[in-house]
Design goal:
Chain lengths: 195, 205
């Protein structure tokens, strides 16, 4: 496993195949928490951490339990169980061990379990048969990409609050159109790396 | 179905399509609304898959609701949903391999749809079999309706074709089938629906 392959994976997952702008996953969360910069940053941190750990967990289960037992067709059910269980567990543990951190990031944890990216990453890892390190790199790249998207969007929407938008387009519709413009910019990244 | 009860079921369906339309009004489950709508066929297929899952989940939950302990209801709902999604996923892989190659991931991600879980929680776990079924049909049709409209415009403008048939013989607006076009289409349609509902409220309808 050479370093350059891993680096390529991270760049590809965060910029070229950015989950929000080119794969359109996690949009509900994306539009939900991108109203304020502060929540966007909190969400990004929690999200990247949860993403990496759940990718690792589901990789272990997929490789050492599901492949030997030949039950890979159950991957949807198993992965959603792993992710939801892990999120619930970290919610409980965090509340006991560090209440300060819990008050800051706890609300995002509850939201994360309904995020499609968190489920998509293990599914893609399993589909592409990535190795353990590759899975982690992919999860890290996806998390960074999502964080980037959230921060960009939050900074735009904070300005958008003050703009004079036609009444029917206030709120979500104009946010969608702004996202479309950013997605157009992100299209420029395609072809940066050939995988 | 008894004649006197028909309007109520009709209301349930109408509620799903217009008043609580998943995509345009509630802004939930947005991911597939952009990801798979660059041609009409995929949009309709995806909508149908969601319709099927929604109806089956509502039926299953409404039949099982007496046996489910309220404290563990959410994990149980997730299990039921992912079970039905697996069924859909495998059926599509077997019967429509071509389309599955393009949208397989999004079919699997129906599991994470907030709208399906929300209907199971808010409606099917409190109502009996028949209303739940109609509620599922309504919500599913609303979703199908939204996906059809979005993909209709995107394929027409982006490729000049509908369902793979060439209709407009001009240079198409390539941007509409690019990812960015999806966001534009949903944003504009959402604005349009907002405008419609404001206009109707003024008339007192």
């Amino acid at each position: 496993m050479e370093f350059s392959k891993i680096f390529e994976l991270i760049v590809a997952a965060s910029l070229i195949n950015n989950f929000v702008f080119t794969r359109f996953l996690g949009l509900c969360i994306f539009f939900g928490v991108s109203k304020k910069m502060e929540t966007a940053v909190g969400m990004s941190i929690t999200f990247t951490a949860v993403m990496m750990i759940s990718a690792a967990l589901s990789w272990l289960i997929f490789t050492f339990v599901m492949v030997p037992l030949d039950i890979t067709f159950l991957k949807i059910i198993v992965f959603i169980g792993v992710v939801a269980g892990f999120v619930q567990a970290s919610d409980t543990v965090m509340r006991k061990i560090s209440p300060g951190l819990y008050y800051k990031l706890g609300i995002y944890l509850a939201l994360i379990s309904t995020n499609c990216i968190i489920l998509a990453v293990p599914l893609i890892n399993a589909g592409e048969r990535y190795s353990f390190i590759e899975s982690l790199a992919f999860a890290l790249g996806s998390g960074l990409g999502f964080a980037l998207a959230l921060v960009i969007m939050a900074s735009i929407r904070e300005k958008l609050e003050l703009a004079d938008v036609p009444a029917a387009f206030k709120g979500l519709p104009i946010a969608f159109i702004a996202t479309g413009l950013i997605a157009l910019a992100f299209a420029g990244f395609s072809g940066l790396i050939k995988l | 179905m008894a004649q006197t009860e028909a309007p109520k079921y009709f209301d349930l369906i109408k509620n799903g399509i217009f008043k609580e339309n998943t995509i345009f009004r509630l802004a939930l489950s947005l991911c597939p609304s952009i990801a798979v709508t660059n041609n009409l066929r995929n949009g309709v297929l995806m909508g149908t898959a969601v319709l099927f899952v929604q109806v089956m989940v509502n039926i299953t939950i409404s039949l099982m609701r007496d046996f489910i302990h309220p404290r563990i209801r959410l994990p149980i709902f997730m299990l039921v949903i992912s079970g039905w999604v697996t069924v859909t996923d495998m059926t599509m892989a077997a019967f429509a391999p071509e389309a599955y190659k393009q949208m397989g991931l999004y079919i699997q991600l129906i599991v994470a749809f907030a709208s399906i879980l929300a209907r199971a929680e808010m409606f099917a776990s409190k109502n009996t079999f028949v209303p739940s079924m109609f509620d599922g049909i309504g919500m599913g049709l609303g979703f199908l309706f939204a996906l059809t409209i979005i993909s209709f415009f995107r394929e027409l403008l982006g490729k000049g074709s509908l369902w793979g048939l060439q209709i407009i013989d001009a240079k198409p607006l390539l941007i509409m089938i690019l990812p960015a076009g999806g966001f534009f289409a949903v944003g504009i349609l959402m604005g349009f629906f907002n405008w419609l509902s404001v206009k109707y409220e003024k008339k007192g309808l």
